[in-house]
Design goal:
three-stranded mixed sheet, Porin, eight-stranded antiparallel beta barrel
C-alpha cells in the first residue's frame, strides 16, 4: 500500500508540475542489434518530465552475448526477453539534460544451448559427469563414476540433488525457464540536435542503472551443460548499461 501511495503521489506531483513545453518519440539503437526493438515517448515540462517505453523480442545472447552476464556467457545460455516495459519521472537540469527515476518490468525466457541429444551423446562418450558439481563451462568438471547408468536416472538424480544441495530448481534439458523481474533505478539522459536548432532530429545518449527490486524467480535454477556441470542461473539483472536513442523532438511553445 505504501509503495502504491508513493508512486501515486509522484505521478500526481509530476502531472501537476508539468506545463507541456515539448514532446519526443524515440527508439533505442542497441535493441535492433539484439533482434528486437524499443519505442519511447517523453513529455517535457519546465522542470519535470514523464516518459514511457516498451521494448520487445530482445535476444541477449546475440552479438557475441553482448547482453549476457559473464556467468550466463560461460554457461552458454540463451536469454530471450519477449517484453520490457515501464515508465520514468525525471528532473530537467537543462532543457537537454535530465536525471530520471525509472520503474521497469522485464519478462525472460532462458534456455541452455545444450540440447537433450547433445547431453545424451556426452554421456555415451563418457564426458557427462554424473556428480552434482556446479560451475561455469568445464569448471569443476570431474569424470563420471559410472559408465553404465541410464540417462534418465542420472538426469532425475541431478534434479533431486540440485534442490537438496543448491536450493535450485533443475531445468530439464531442452526446456525453458520463464520469469519476470522488476527494476527501479536511475538514468542520465542528454539530447543532441545534429541538424542544429532546439527541435527536430534528436540523438539521445544515456547511462542507466536498473537493479532488480523484485522477481518471481527468487531462487537460482540449474542448467546442465554438455560436461554434466550444473550452471546456477539467478534472475538476470539489468544493472549498469549505456544506450543511444534516435528520434524526433518537438517544442510546443
Amino acid at each position: 500500500m505504501l509503495k502504491k501511495t508513493i508512486i501515486s503521489l509522484l505521478l500526481f506531483f509530476t502531472a501537476f508540475s508539468l506545463n507541456a513545453e515539448a514532446v519526443s518519440i524515440q527508439g533505442g539503437l542497441s535493441q535492433p542489434l539484439l533482434g528486437g526493438w524499443n519505442v519511447a515517448g517523453t513529455y517535457y515540462g519546465k522542470k519535470f518530465l514523464f516518459e514511457y517505453s516498451h521494448g520487445t523480442d530482445l535476444h541477449f545472447d546475440r552479438m557475441g552475448g553482448a547482453g549476457l552476464s559473464e556467468a550466463e556467457r560461460k554457461q552458454d545460455l540463451k536469454v530471450h526477453v519477449p517484453y520490457t516495459t515501464g515508465f520514468g519521472i525525471g528532473y530537467l537540469f537543462t532543457p537537454n539534460f535530465d536525471l530520471r527515476l525509472e520503474f521497469k518490468e522485464h519478462f525472460y525466457r532462458v534456455q541452455s544451448n545444450t540440447s537433450p541429444d547433445e547431453l545424451y551423446l556426452s554421456q555415451a562418450l563418457g564426458i557427462r559427469s554424473d556428480l552434482p558439481v556446479s560451475g561455469n563451462g568445464a569448471e569443476n568438471w570431474v569424470p563420471p563414476l559410472s559408465q553404465n547408468e541410464n540417462f534418465m536416472d542420472v538426469t532425475l538424480r541431478k534434479a533431486v540433488e540440485s534442490e537438496f544441495l543448491y536450493n535450485a530448481h533443475y531445468v530439464m534439458p531442452g526446456t525453458t525457464h520463464r520469469y519476470r523481474t522488476r527494476s527501479a533505478g536511475l538514468g542520465l539522459y542528454y539530447r543532441i540536435f545534429p541538424l542544429g536548432g532546439k527541435e527536430g532530429l534528436m540523438i539521445e545518449p544515456s547511462i542507466r542503472f536498473w537493479p532488480n527490486v523484485w522477481t518471481d524467480s527468487p531462487n537460482p535454477v540449474a542448467f546442465e551443460n554438455q560436461y554434466g556441470v550444473l550452471g546456477l542461473h539467478k534472475a538476470h539483472d539489468q544493472g549498469l548499461f549505456v544506450n543511444v536513442s534516435i528520434g524526433y523532438y518537438k517544442r510546443l511553445e
